[in-house]
Amino acid sequence: MKVAELIEVLQGYPADMEVHMAYGSGDYWRTVLAPAVTQISEGAVKYTEYHRMDKLVELDDDEMDSDARTVLILE
């Protein structure tokens, strides 16, 4: 999702509505957790075959190369 797409989607909701993010806890019951978004920042990510998704990488990390991308992080 791009920032422009996120802005477009968010415009359809009340400005005072809380924002949470959802993710699987990995527990036996497959609980989906939904903590509140409290911070927005930029970060660098790189795809990892092991996890089959992007992971955060540090800017001074050896992994920072042409495969890394700057993205918006919702925490």
Description:
- The structure is a single chain.
- This protein has 75 residues and is mostly beta strands.
- It has one domain.
- The chain contains 1 helix and 5 strands; from the N terminus they run αβββββ.
- It has one helix at 3-10; strands at 23-24, 32-33, 40-48, 53-57, 69-74.
- The strands form 2 sheets. Strands 4-3-5 form a 3-stranded antiparallel sheet, with no helix packed on it. A two-stranded antiparallel sheet has the order 1-2.
- Strand 3 and strand 4 (53-57) form a beta hairpin.
- The radius of gyration is 15 Å and the shape is globular.
Short structural summary:
It is built from one helix and five strands.
Work out the helix count: 1
Read across the widest sheet, the strand sequence of neighbours is 4-3-5
Helix content: 10-25%
Judging from the principal axes of the Cα atoms, what is the shape? globular
Number of domains: 1
CA-atom Rg in angstroms: 15 Å
Overall pLDDT, averaged? Answer: 91
| SSE pattern, N- to C-terminal | HEEEEE
Structural class, from helix and strand content?
mainly beta
Largest beta-sheet details: 3 strands, antiparallel
Tell me the total number of β-strands. Answer: 5
The stretches of 5 or more residues where confidence is low (pLDDT under 50) are none
Distance linking N and C termini: 16 Å
What is the beta-strand fraction?
25-35%
